[in-house]
Design a protein that fits this description.
Blueprint lengths: L3 H14 L5 E6 L12 H8 L8 E3 L2 E5 L5 E5 L4 E7 L8 E7 L8 E7 L5 E5 L23 H9 L5 H5 L10 H11 L12 H20 L41 E5 L2 E5 L16
Antiparallel strand pairs: 1-6, 2-3, 3-4, 4-8, 5-7, 6-7, 9-10
The structure holds zinc ion.
The site of zinc ion (ZN) has 7 residues, from loops.
Length: 291
């Protein structure tokens, strides 16, 4: 599943290739990929045709392309979605769902923007007046790489919550874009166990987790993003390779690079958490309140 760095890589690719181009044709090959556009695929195509992509933006793992009309094309890659920039004569991908024919710009030839999605948890929609921020995304918090991220507000919210810090990191209304992989990596770097309750952490602990999240996500960005899922490739079809740099995620039974203890895996919300039992001691049980 693409995490924030991968989605940011895609955003940059779209910014480099799609801006200033007119949508000349829209072909929806599978209606499920535009299911969130309730008026249906024909309406989706009609509203986008003739518009020009003005920018490429992101909030958490959502991408949107503001249009010259003030509306936006909104997308989420889901588990396996890809946005590929392809020559117009490239053969159709096996799981091609939506094809946009984009006009020439600045002497560069026509291209296709293709939404390819094997499992179809992702999707595209048309967001009226969504250029600045689609209404669909208003509830999603900024991500830690966003210059306008509210750090003090985040620390306050964490310290008011009795949830485990990992669960808080995965809550998109508090902080967005930190998925399962980067949460584990950030917590390892900050030496904090994911089950430690927010209201038992000091401000300095929370700030350390935040700094660690920024560190691992920035490192991933520099390397093109993590790729666990062979399905994931960036906007030009190039796979990320950050997985080689992961310290704990996917490394059960391997020695921690800091202390040599063996990395452990436990199940967590239908997925897994990986951590070093020595660097990240589990919290002691909360003392029962006297009756
Ligand atoms: Zn360790």
């Amino acid at each position: 599943m693409p995490e924030l760095p991968e989605v940011e890589v895609v955003r940059r690719g779209l910014a480099a290739h799609a801006l200033g181009r007119e949508v000349e044709a829209v072909e929806v090959l599978h209606p499920r990929s535009v299911r969130r556009h309730l008026p249906g695929p024909e309406d989706f195509a009609a509203r986008l045709t003739g518009r020009v992509f003005a920018a490429a933006r992101r909030r958490g793992k959502y991408l949107w392309l503001p249009l010259d009309s003030g509306d936006a094309l909104l997308g989420h890659l889901g588990m396996s979605g890809q946005l590929l920039v392809q020559p117009v004569d490239a053969p159709a991908e096996r799981h091609l769902r939506v094809r946009f024919g984009l006009g020439p710009v600045d002497g560069r030839p026509r291209i296709d923007l293709r939404f390819v999605d094997q499992r179809m948890f992702g999707g595209l929609s048309f967001s009226p007046a969504g250029a600045d921020l689609p209404a669909e995304l208003a509830h999603i918090a900024r991500d830690p790489l966003d210059p306008d991220f509210d750090e003090a507000g985040f620390v306050r919210r964490v310290r008011r919550s009795a949830s485990g810090i990992k669960r808080i990191l995965l809550n998109q209304t508090t902080i967005s874009g930190v998925g399962n992989i980067y949460a584990d990596e950030a917590l390892w770097l900050a030496r904090i166990h994911g089950d430690r309750p927010g209201d038992r952490l000091r401000s300095a602990d929370v700030e350390r987790v935040l700094t660690a999240a920024r560190t691992v996500m920035s490192a991933a960005l520099g390397q093109g993003g993590t790729s666990f899922d062979a399905l994931y490739v960036d906007v030009n079809g190039e796979s990320g390779y950050f997985d080689r740099s992961l310290e704990v995620y996917g490394r059960e039974g391997e020695p921690c690079s800091r202390c040599g203890s063996l990395v452990r895996r436990v199940s967590f919300m239908n997925r897994s958490s990986f951590f070093c039992p020595t660097c990240q001691p589990a919290p002691r049980a909360r003392r029962a309140t006297p009756a």
